[in-house]
Amino acid sequence: MAFDEELSNEIRKRADIVKIVGSYLPLTKKGRNFVAKCPFHDDNNPSFTVSPEKQMAHCFVCGASGNSITFVQKYLKISYVEAMKKVAEIIGFSDPRLEANTYKKPIDNKKATILKCLKDLSLYYEYALNTEQGKEGLDYFEKRHLDSDLRGKYQLGYAFDDAQASINFLLGRGHSLKTIEDTGISQLVNGNYIDKNHGRVIFPIKDENGDVIGFSARRMNNDSSLAKYVNSPETYVFHKSSVLYNLDIAKDKARLAGHIYICEGFMDVFALGRIGVDNAVATMGTALTNEHVQMLRKLNVEIRLCLDGDLPGQTASMKAAKFLEENGLKVLIVDAGSHSKDPDEILNAEGEEALRTYINTLLSRVDFALAYYQRSNPLKTNEQKKKLIKEFLPILLSIRSPLDLDNYLRKLSKVTGYDVESIRDLLKRSRAVDVSHNDELMRNFRPERKAVRKLEIAERELLYQMINHPEAVAFYEEKIGLFYDETYRHLANFIVDYSSRHNNYDSIDIVSSLENSGLDNKDELVKEFSSLYLEKTHPQECNEELLSNLLDSINNEKEKIYEQDTLAMSLEGKSELEQARIVAEYNRRKNKK
């Protein structure tokens, strides 16, 4: 098809540039225009502006600009005529002039030759699977619940145990030894070329156009002397850092569904395929790369990470989500919860509905991070809680929406028991200092002393009296039982236990006993004990009036905190209007007291 200026102008006038650019980039409305991270340079802030009024796009950093057609031309790196046709497809415009032969890029003869060889080999592997010699491979696939339809869909195969069979077949098809070498499947042994995949089941790996570019071959037995997988090496056509397995099938399904799942391996992709979810891909054993980002960005869909539920898989999810969000992609993560199984195991053990529920239970990166850090680092002590806050600071700093930030601050407050304003204040201070000073900020972070200030003062005073006066220990056992503050509670319980085992009550001996205890949090308790013991702002006399006043204060403040916790629980999952009604009713009842 030759360039037709009249046709070009007609397509350009019919196309809405916001729709065209929005088909490839996530756009955000800003005033009368839309903005996105520029795809033509390494852009950390949205500098690519799309004007619906002028039907133009422009980057104010690198200067890239153009109309709907030239944007597609530059973004997809295709000819102007091909871009015209692509824009026409997006807007649903048809014209006989578009049906003419489109200009094609010059053919890469070396690539074409290798791809033809790989295609022939893949067909040969498929054939081998359905022969008598391939029965072992067929049994393996059927054991893994991959029926004939799925085997055909993914072109699964088998490499004959005869290591030279594949080589002879390809030579018979007219392929040279040099081309066979270039595919990456051959190996020279005792002067003969053999197929490295021999005796294994075969998973063809395709590019996004559906061309076979390599193979992964799995052994079928438990012979640990053999590698579990033999994978294609880097070749002229295969680069695993730029391959997403099943993208050729998944890309159109993903655009239709509005999202794509990223899994760890072939079997996870097959598991989702078995329940009709074809918009799933897998990485080739690598972390996500910039090449993967470019491929995913073109789909303009939500990314759903569906990695293994064990700790390494969840750690990989954290890293991948951070990487994708930093590159401007919208990400959700499948919540593994207590699951340590992968999708294939869930489907086989629990059935289709269980897997559907699993892949549709999704969390934002922040919610996932909160659950992840709790699972990997249970919050038993203040030090552990502070570590969680420290880990969370970079995530909180990346949140742009004030409403989302407030929501996550409250969730973090609930998990740690720390006051929302304490965490918010730490966040403000961390924005104002260099990241290298975060450790210093955390050393001075005392949220547990601000969350329940009045109760903390009363409990701290009683604990001071317990350190210095045995009668306060008896009072605590009889009237209090348990402190609200976790650190104070552990310290009080240690003092009670110590006094029950020793006739002589000596504060120095208590701290010495604490230092030699096997408690996990003994360092924190010793630090707290020493701090209290050296304080001088306490009444010297421990009498009945002081203890009675402390009891009243502790009971009153505990009741208030209980009411606040009950209110917070009642607000969960409610609409903003319903939350406002509950808060108003709470305040009305409170004022009546």
N-to-C span: 83 Å
Q: Mean pLDDT across all residues, rounded?
A: 85
Percent of residues in helices: 40-55%
What general form does the structure show? globular
Largest sheet data: 6 strands, mixed
Structural category: alpha+beta
What is the chains' assembly state? single chain
CATH fold label of the largest domain: DNA primase DNAg catalytic core, N-terminal domain
Number of helices: 27
Strand order of the largest sheet: 12-14-13-15-16-17
Main CATH class of the largest domain:
Alpha Beta
Contiguous low-pLDDT stretches (5 residues minimum) are none
Nearest-angstrom radius of gyration? 33 Å
* Strand coverage percent: 5-15%
What keywords describe this structure?
17 strands; Dna Topoisomerase Vi A Subunit, Chain: A, domain 2; five-stranded antiparallel beta sheet; 5 domains; globular; 11% strand; alpha+beta; single chain; DNA primase DNAg catalytic core, N-terminal domain; 593 residues
List the helices and strands and how they pair.
Layout: H1 5-14, H2 17-22, E1 28-30, E2 33-36, E3 48-51, E4 56-59, E5 65-66, H3 68-76, H4 80-91, H5 109-129, H6 135-143, H7 148-153, E6 157-158, H8 165-172, H9 177-183, E7 186-189, E8 192-195, E9 201-206, E10 212-218, E11 229-231, E12 244-245, H10 247-257, E13 259-263, H11 266-274, E14 280-283, H12 290-299, E15 302-306, H13 311-326, E16 331-334, H14 343-350, H15 352-359, E17 362-363, H16 365-376, H17 382-397, H18 402-416, H19 420-432, H20 438-443, H21 453-468, H22 470-480, H23 486-501, H24 507-515, H25 522-534, H26 544-571, H27 576-592
Parallel strand pairs: 13-14, 13-15, 15-16
Antiparallel strand pairs: 1-2, 2-3, 3-4, 4-5, 6-9, 7-8, 9-10, 10-11, 12-14, 16-17
Helix pairs in contact: 1-4, 3-4, 5-9, 13-16, 14-15, 16-17, 17-18, 17-19, 21-22, 21-23, 21-26, 22-23, 23-25, 24-25
